[in-house]
Structure formats: C-alpha cells, structure tokens
User: Fold this.
Amino acid sequence: MSDRLAFADLTPGRVFELGTVTVDRDEMVAFARRFDPQPFHLDEQVAAGSVFGGLAASGWFTAGLWMRAYVDGVLARADGLGSPGGDEISWPAPVFAGDELRASMEVLAARRSRTRPELGLVTLRGSMHRDDVLVFSSRFTGMFRATS
Amino acid sequence: MSDRLAFADLTPGRVFELGTVTVDRDEMVAFARRFDPQPFHLDEQVAAGSVFGGLAASGWFTAGLWMRAYVDGVLARADGLGSPGGDEISWPAPVFAGDELRASMEVLAARRSRTRPELGLVTLRGSMHRDDVLVFSSRFTGMFRATS
Assistant:
C-alpha cells in the first residue's frame, strides 16, 4: 500500500478495498457518550427493547471508522485536499459491538475543476458492510491535487 | 429545556437554537488522530501551508459536535428512533481550534409513515455557524415515535 496515488489513478469504476475493522464495544459507547448520548447507544437494557434490538453504534462512529480506513488505504498515499461535502449519507442497518466491518471506496466520477485545473474533484462512494449487509454508505466529493 | 417534545411539535419551519460550543484543540486533534489522520488535521506546520491556512478540524468532528448539541437540545426530550440517513452533508468553511460554534436545527418537513402511522418522519436541517459563517450543514431524516 506504499504506492503513491495520483489524481489520474482515481478513475471511475475503480474500487479500493480498505480492509476490515472490528467494532470495539468500549470505544463505541465512549464515542456515543461524548457525541451521541441517546439511550439505545448507551444502555444495553434500553437498547434491547429499542428498534435496534441491541446496543447500536452511533452512525457518526461508523462514519468515523470508515473515514479512518479511507485515510489509511487511500489518502495516506495521495494528495488529498479535503472535502466540501456530499449528497448522500445513510445507515441502512444498525452496527453492533463486535461486528467486523469491511470498508471500501469506489470512484464514481473524476474531473478537473474548470476554474482551477490543478484541482481534481473526485465523486466517490464510501461503504461499510457486515458480511453482505450494507451498514453505511456515503457519496461525497474528494478534492485532490492534480498537477501532473 | 425540560419540556417534552412530541412528534406534533416538530412543525415545518420551527427552528431550535441548540447553543454554542467552543472547539477544544486537544480533543479536536485527538479525534483526528483516531478517525481522520490527515496532516492538515494533525500538524500545525503542515496545516499552515495547506488550503485551510491553519490546523483544521475533521469534518466528522464538527458533525459530532453538532450531533451532541442536537441530542442535548432536542432528542433528550423527544422520542427519537434514530435516522436512516440524509441527502446532504457539507462543510463549506474550515473549523479551527478555539472557534465558538453555534448549533441549530430547523424542521423542514414532517409526516407519518404511510405503512407505519405510529412512526413520524421528520426532515430536518442541522447547521453550525461561526458568527455568520456556515461551517457545517446537513439535511437528513429523523424518526420519532408518533403515537398521539
């Protein structure tokens, strides 16, 4: 994974498998306590009777786990310039402590900025799956240096 | 803020002011180290020469700060049932350590589920501003118990 990625390497259809991460219960709950203290993210008993059927991760924690995998697998070897945002973020299924999640990123589109051709604009989809179940999906724009 | 909020109280156009939060530098950097270790989120020197012009928060950290304000100001006194996601997330301006951010939530639309009328579906916009500068915005669906 030490090969550098240039903007030109981020071609539509290319998929990056970003490895797996196991959801740590203590970290999951600590995250919820700080950023999303809803009862079904904090309390096993309450969560068991909730729509989730068990203690569920905050969706923002799942997003953070995906982001870390994306940084490690792609951004660490590219010239990323941040993101202005995106037009989809979804949590189609709950995530539970101990889940093994598989992260991936697909390039959907890539072009140079019209006004700043040295800026590459990449539309991408980030996904997390537990087995074949999609638990997180987001489509957003990544900005990359596009000098060559 | 102890008044309960029923689904019927979440009427389109209603705005909830969710207070202010000051961005703590140590927490901001610790978050980035764990979830978004890009150089401009971690290293003051690198960040000064980056597009952000200074050490900038991970957008996911800003999202987390907004979520906490939303839980404290709204969800803690409502019967929230989580969120399936949304169709906008944006970070139009960078966030820096020490920034005082003002959180708000606006109800854009609200209806009962056609198939499950006891489920209220609320389209809402979450926003964070530093003075008059919008630094975070997201539009998503919140699910609420709608029994009465």
Chain A touches chain B through 39 residues (CB under 8 Å). Helices of chain A lie at 25-35, 39-42, 44-48, 59-73. Chain A has a mean pLDDT of 96. The CA atoms of residues 86 and 143 of chain A lie 12 Å apart.
